[in-house]
Amino acid sequence: MIKHKFLPQPYKGILHKYWEWMPPAIQWMGKEKIITLFEGNTCLWRAKNFENYLRDLFPYFHSEVYWKLEGENRGSGSFKDRGMTAAITMAAARGKKVVICASTGNTAASAAVYAQAAGMRCLVVLPEGNVAPGKLTQSYRHGAKVIQIKGNFDKALEIVREVVLREKDKELVNSINPHRTEGQKTAAFEIVDELGEAPRYHFIPVGNGGNITAYWRGYKEYYIKGRSKRCPHMIGYQAVGAAPIVLGRAVENPKTIASAICIGNPAKWEEAKAARDESSGKIDMADDEEIMAAYALISELEPVSCEPSSAISVAGVIKEIKRIPRDIYIWDGCKIVCTLTGAAWKDPDAAKKVFVKDPIVIDASYDAVMDVIRSN
Ligand code: F0G
């Protein structure tokens, strides 16, 4: 067979792609042990219609806005897959047979598929009644043991932390797991690789604080090694009913329609604050109405979709533009990136409520269909 020197290598996921950026703790086990579902390589969407929308709000706006579509991750449809390939690979390489996590839904779904790929058992502990159905069924479908508790995410995390403290055969794959951060930082690499430079602002939803921490690490590493000339300001957004970092105190009963980020006591609180402070950024909050307005707007303006929690980063940009006086300079020709963290199909209930307004149901006849077509 003729070997073509310049044939592109098949894409094998983020660990293969960014192997030299992984710490020795991961590199020691060798590439052949990697468990990948071809995650990463997600689209960076230039949201031109959204830019025009912002210009209508504020005529001096002439920045570029990009949306990192993390719902495209091939493992389970969220950014968690980047971290999970690393966490599950390491757990498997160290001979663990069982992984466990607490989750608002996406971590669980991701853990379930990667554990299945690795032939491991997966236990997920979820807040009953507060997980979007798409995510819940993913965990079931891929064979995880799904344990729903009558309590919130924070309680679930407390419980699984205790489990792994007592039972050493089980590996915790929540974002406290350091390998998760290493995997998730690759999203920042992809952005800089594509733009040729780091954006000036990066907007991101904040729940447990893992993702903002990971992006910040990625941007810093690229900067330190000379791949980019600057780091962005990290602009995190929490939901008003679940904004412990903004308020500076844990929220006992967090409440928000954005179930993925309904977290009152983030595990990566200090790291998220460090990302905010080191980047001269900020962490602010948007209410449910603003989140859902952004959720609807995203798909109205662009052929793009995401789950409600992801929309808070776009809600954040709108808030910053509407705010008077404006306290961050996002309008003057810079590049802004928002992470849209999870896929729209994860939350069909939200989609139905927002988008399916007046369903047309008629008799099954040519005439009836034509009547409707002609009527408008
Ligand atoms: N967006 C989505 C869709 C999420 O699922 C999460 C977190 C976040 C944003 C926030 O990211 O926690 O790193 O600050 N979901 C976790 C879970 C908590 O269990 O799926 P974070």
Automatic annotation (TrEMBL):
Residues 35-327 form the Tryptophan synthase beta chain-like PALP domain. Its EC number is 4.2.3.1. GO terms for molecular function: L-serine ammonia-lyase activity; pyridoxal phosphate binding; threonine deaminase activity; threonine synthase activity. It comes from the Bacteria. It is an enzyme of class 4 (lyase). Keywords: Amino-acid biosynthesis, Lyase, Pyridoxal phosphate, Threonine biosynthesis. The modification N6-(pyridoxal phosphate)lysine is found at K80. Gene3D superfamilies: 3.40.50.1100. It catalyses: O-phospho-L-homoserine + H2O = L-threonine + phosphate. GO terms for biological process: isoleucine biosynthetic process; L-serine catabolic process; L-threonine catabolic process; threonine biosynthetic process. Its cofactor is pyridoxal 5'-phosphate. Pathway: Amino-acid biosynthesis; L-threonine biosynthesis; L-threonine from L-aspartate: step 5/5. The keyword Amino-acid biosynthesis applies. InterPro entries: Ser/Thr_Dehydratase, Ser/Thr_deHydtase_PyrdxlP-BS, Thr_synthase-like, Thr_Synthase_bac/arc, TrpB-like_PALP, TrpB-like_PALP_sf. Pyridoxal 5'-phosphate binds at N106, G207, N208, G209, G210, N211. Belongs to the threonine synthase family. Catalyzes the gamma-elimination of phosphate from L-phosphohomoserine and the beta-addition of water to produce L-threonine. This is Threonine synthase.
